[in-house]
Amino acid sequence: MLFDNSDKFIKNKVVIYSMAIAYILINVDLGTEKYILKEIKKIENVKEAHFVYGVYDIIAKVEADSIDKVKEIITMKIRRLENIKSTLTMMVMEIK
């Protein structure tokens, strides 16, 4: 295991961050996009949230101390918002 000067360590050429990061693609009910975006931005650990065009309506970036905390934020806070139809979560990793 190799350490660099940041908050990550390298194991088998895969960079593992000490902070868990995920991007969540979100589908919402038609007409609720503005309200949902506002509510998502209020959630602690949501670092960014934006409208997007295409299959999904909103993308959000979540950062937390652990993968379990990211899962908790997604399942207990984001997915429980009224008018959320579906989500797709992508955990961040970097291959060196």
CATH class category label: Alpha Beta
Separate helix tally: 2
Radius of gyration (Å):
15 Å
Total domain units: 1
What does this protein structure show overall?
- There is one protein chain.
- The protein is of the alpha+beta class and 96 residues long.
- The protein has one domain: Alpha-Beta Plaits, CATH 3.30.70.
- The chain is 23% helix and 44% strand.
- It has helices at residues 33-42, 67-78, and strands at residues 2-3, 8-11, 14-17, 20-28, 46-51, 58-64, 84-91, 94-95.
- Strands 1-2-3-8 form a four-stranded antiparallel beta sheet, with no helix packed on it. Strands 5-6-4-7 form a four-stranded antiparallel beta sheet.
- Strand 1 (2-3) and strand 2 (8-11) form a beta hairpin.
- The longest helix has 12 residues, at 67-78.
- Residues 1-6 have low confidence and may be disordered.
Topology:
Blueprint: E1 2-3, E2 8-11, E3 14-17, E4 20-28, H1 33-42, E5 46-51, E6 58-64, H2 67-78, E7 84-91, E8 94-95
Antiparallel strand pairs: 1-2, 2-3, 3-8, 4-6, 4-7, 5-6
In short:
The chain has helices at residues 33-42, 67-78, and strands spanning 2-3, 8-11, 14-17, 20-28, 46-51, 58-64, 84-91, 94-95.
Key traits:
96 residues, alpha+beta, Alpha-Beta Plaits, 4-stranded antiparallel beta sheet, 2 helices, disordered N terminus
